[in-house]
Amino acid sequence: MKAVSSVFAGLLLVLAIVGSSAVYVVDQREQALLFQLGEVVEVKTSPGLYFKVPFVQNIRFFDSRILTMDSEEPERFITSEKKNVLVDLFVKWRIVDVKQYYISVQGDETLARVRLAQTINSSIRDEFGNRTVHDVVSGERDNIMEIMRQKANADARKIGVEVVDVRLKRVDLPQEVSESVYRRMEAERKRVANELRSTGAAEAEKIRADADRQNEVILAEAYRDAQKTMGQGDAQATAIYAEAFQKDAKFYEFYRSLDAYKKSFKNKEDILVVEPSSEFFKYMKSASDPKK
User: Fold this and answer.
1) How many other CB atoms are there within 10 angstroms of residue 247's CB atom?
2) 189 φ/ψ angles, rounded to the nearest 5 degrees
3) How many CB atoms lie within 10 A of CB 225?
4) Residue 292: what pLDDT?
5) How far is CA 209 from CA 55, 202, 217, 218, 219, in A?
6) pLDDT-derived band of residue 172, with 50, 70 and 90 as boundaries?
7) Fewer Cβ within 10 Å of end Cβ, the chain: N or C?
8) What is the value of pTM for the model shown?
9) With 80 as the cut, is the pLDDT of residue 6 above it?
């Protein structure tokens, strides 16, 4: 009885092993190739539970997600100006034809990366060789990346791979070239700054000259108006004096003489040298003459 039980348990174990080897699961992130005696007999691209013949058929899984190939070190390329630039990039790719992928690179991701790197490098050399530093740095960067993606994708399709995207992370000049470029940029900025300073100085002189001209004009106009006002005042005063003179000539003459005396002998230190018979003392004589 124990022997029968052992045999039955052994049979169950063998059936379990055989059953488990006959079932396999394809994950939604994977694709699978079913091999029979070393040849591909079926491709599984949809997730699910599948069966195979134990010990005769075997299965191999491949990642169907988007993979990234990133350059470890920037590589040197030459532009149309014969200038070196350092390029750092990454590539997004995925397997779209798993059978062709297996046939072309034996399903080895390392070999696929080498093939993609060669294609990308060739495309970069072609594109950079036809463009200037300005174009590859900023001017046509997006266009260059799209052209490289298309060229790389056309070649990658031959090994069952699709190139989703190619991105230039950084495009720099080598250190020895950067220094000379920076020196030229600095000299150019200094030249522009000097031009702006010269232009500003010229504008300042122009503004000052215009301000000085306006100042002279304002002063001249003010002096003219002042002289005009003074002339009008003098004319009015003369008219008043003339009118007063006409009313009483002798009194006016006497008043003017008193005013002249007052101004002449304003200070005690004032000295006036005239002849005693001068008309200047006319009214003084009249005041001292008892007959008058």
Assistant:
1) 9
2) -65, -40
3) 10
4) 47
5) 104, 10, 12, 14, 15
6) confident
7) N
8) 0.54
9) no
> At what angle are helices 141-156 and 109-129 packed, to 10 degrees?
140
Task: Round to whole Å and give the CA distance between 21 and 54.
Answer: 6
Q: What is the C-alpha separation between 88 and 121, in angstroms, rounded? A: 11
* CA-wise closest residue to 135 among 80, 177, 74: 80
38: left (phi over 0), alpha (psi -120 to 50) or beta: left
Q: Which residues pair with 39 in a beta bridge?
A: 36
> In the numeric block, which tokens belong to residue 97?
């034809």
259-264-267-270 Cα dihedral, nearest 10 degrees: -170
- DSSP H helices in 48-169: 98-105, 109-129, 133-134, 141-156
Return the SS3 of 41. Answer: strand
Q: Which residue has the tokens 């056309």?
A: 154
Distance CA 172, CA 84 (A): 9
Query: For the chain, how many helices (H) and strands (E)?
Result: 8, 9
Structural contact between residues 265 and 272, judged by C-beta atoms closer than 8 angstroms: yes
φ and ψ of 52, to 5 deg: -145, 165
Each residue's pLDDT tens digit, 87-134: 888 999 999 999 999 999 988 989 999 999 888 888 888 888 888 877
46: helix, strand or coil: coil
